[in-house]
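Worked example

This section walks through a single chain of length 486. The input is the sequence exactly as stored; nothing has been trimmed or padded.
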Amino acid sequence: MPERLTLEPVGPARFRLQRSGGMRVPGLVFADEETVAQLHEEASNPEAWSALRQVQNVACLPGIVGASLALPDVHPGYGFPIGGVGAFDLDEGVAVVGGVGFDINCGVRMLATQLSRGEVLDQVQSIGRDLFETVPAGLGSKGELRLSVAEIDHVLLEGAAYAVGQGFGLDEDLAFIEEGGRIEGADPTCVSALAKKRQFGQVGTLGSGNHYLELQFVEKVLDAGAAAAYGLGLDQIVISIHTGSRALGHQIGQDYLKEMADAVSKYGLDVPERELACAPIGSAEARRYLAAVACGANCAFANRQVIAHLVRTSLERTCGTEPDATRTVYDIGHNNAKIEEHSVDGERRRLLVHRKGSTRAFGPGRPEAPEPYRHIGHPIFVGGTMGTASYVMRGTDVGMETTFGSGIHGAGRALSRKKAAKRFWGDTVISDLAGSGVLVFAHSKRGVAEEAPGAYKDVERVVGAAEAAGINRAVVKLRPLAVIKG
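Given that input, the structure is written out below as tokens.
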């Protein structure tokens, strides 16, 4: 029988997993009672994939600081739980492949238009169809930006700025992308030739799985001050682009998982689970891995930059909007490992923060936020499902103190893709959604079934738990009108 793991309430939507066994720090889970019950049930079943046991395992890693964290959208991942956060001391800690995952810098860019729901309601079919035909999506899709070996290295170094330089988008976009669309420390020599080869034609493609492009409208304003700062208003049309580093990021993960597994033995690390393969932050292996992660992140920024340009050209055709009238609200990832400065027990420390299915959600006053947002904290984007709401939220001071400035990234899966594909039919999902006013344009009916609304947790519960815990605040609620899927 597995060790019994019990979460004890320590505040609103906040539960502690006490230290036991090899745990160096406690676990801290932000969730509602229903999610906690599910976590307990998973952990009690030795055959189940347990997010709570993953929280415990992360807490055993060398140099971890504060607590092993899980956010309200938590569910099992590879090594780290999805919705997991782990911060590590630079001298004693480790870099963990499972703390980033295989879709490096998967994230969301939101574009805000000057259109209102009433202006487009009769055109949703034509707008959605044109977006579907303009933005490449699905397995093996190819983008307009075809790259040579030398050019892919420029993408890995320069990120979104390279795409802008090639005519994809606007210079002003860069000020509203996390890290300006380029993470420093990238080194293309740390990325394998195979990873680069897999990416030559994929910059500017949406991909498949849970990636999407949605035409949405602001259904409700929940924080008027923050909404005004972000330039969002009632009934406004926005577009959310959710994708990442595509095949390149996946190959980086595969390449370094093996290298880190060898490093565990080389450095005599005590790691509770092979999926948490890692290396000391100061080691050559970790330095190469983090340089490769930066490359993957920059590739993802460039990918979303090109897609944003394609969205602008599509809206110009269907709605007559000038490209510069469609503004980047923000672009931020949720699978990253970055060195950041945080306060720990009243002391400012530089830490390597891993966020797996978790968004950097810095509160008011942090210089990393775009200047117009600095007084309020930058936005984060919480995807719901094709048939439910999504949210724009923001970071808080409480979140800075308790989660290293992290936030939720979505509803979180309730069913695996395999189980969802057995339970739902793609045609039925599309028909049901059309009946509720949401048009779905998809390259794969099975992909639609895997991403059916019923395969996910209730986003209202997830957002409510984040608010109850005080770590994130809701700014606006969004509803989909058209969804583009791979």
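What to look for: The first strand starts at residue 7 and ends at 11.
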